[in-house]
Design goal:
The complex is a heterodimer of chains A (about 130) and B (about 80). Chain A is an alpha/beta fold and about 130 residues long. Chain A is built from six helices and five strands, in the order βαβαααβαβαβ. Chain A has a five-stranded parallel β-sheet with strand order 4-3-2-1-5. The longest helix of chain B is centred in the middle third of the chain and has 14 residues, at about 40-55. The two termini of chain B are about 15 Å apart. Classes of the chains: A alpha/beta (about 130), B alpha+beta (about 80). The interface between A and B is medium-sized, with 14 and 14 residues.
């Protein structure tokens, strides 16, 4: 049986939510499931190329702290593994890129497939399961 | 039969052991068995679930001291 595609709308800048999105995206992608991730609002800040350390990339609460202390797999690395090992596409929200005046070069390399509008993402998401974080 | 490969993912947290196993399976030949060692409690349940989901052959899980040994055969 073919699984429904998984659509993840990642809006929160909280480390815990970004980590959960990365876990769902990577595990979904390696489980023969197409995964589409749409990154918007404060979540996009974690993907700025200029943020080179986990401390500068992730803001969160007590679980964020313990995850960093224990060295759980980095969220960006999990997204990257999902792309390498499965069918995972990632798009940056065109609105949040526009208001920041950013182009794709502003974001980390080799993770995003491009920019996308919310209307397009929601339209595609009608064909699958949508999760918002 | 070819020698079974062991991937030592002890010390890695979920979903690290699963991702390491999948990377190993990608490189393995069909029919080859792989053993993944994991100290992560969730992975001990998640890895057999993943094997069943994608259709490889689950061989067995053994609890050894404070870690698990899970063996899978690549079938496709």
């Amino acid at each position: 049986m073919t699984s429904l595609p998984l659509f993840i709308m990642l809006c929160s800048g909280e480390h815990e939510k970004i980590q959960m999105a990365a876990m769902m995206a990577s595990v979904g992608a390696v489980s023969d499931r197409k995964v589409h991730v749409f990154v918007s609002m404060n979540a996009i800040l974690a993907f700025e190329k200029s943020r080179t350390t986990p401390e500068s990339r992730y803001q969160g609460g007590p679980i964020s702290k313990v995850m960093q202390e224990k060295g759980v797999p980095d969220a960006l690395e999990l997204f990257s593994q999902g792309k390498m090992l499965g069918e995972l596409t990632m798009n940056a929200c065109s609105m949040v890129m526009d208001v920041n005046g950013w182009d794709m070069d502003h974001l980390v390399d080799d993770l995003f497939d491009g920019m996308e509008g919310l209307t397009s993402f929601l339209s595609d998401a009608e064909k699958g399961q949508l999760i918002t974080l | 039969m070819s020698e079974r490969k062991t991937i030592d993912a002890r010390g890695s947290f979920c979903p690290g052991p699963l991702m390491e196993l999948i990377a190993g399976i990608k490189l393995a030949e069909v029919g080859e068995e792989l053993e993944i060692l994991s100290g992560d409690r969730g992975s001990a349940e998640d890895i057999p679930a993943w094997i069943a989901k994608v259709g490889h052959e689950y061989i067995k899980t053994d609890k050894i001291d404070d870690y698990w040994s899970i063996i899978v055969k690549k079938t496709k």
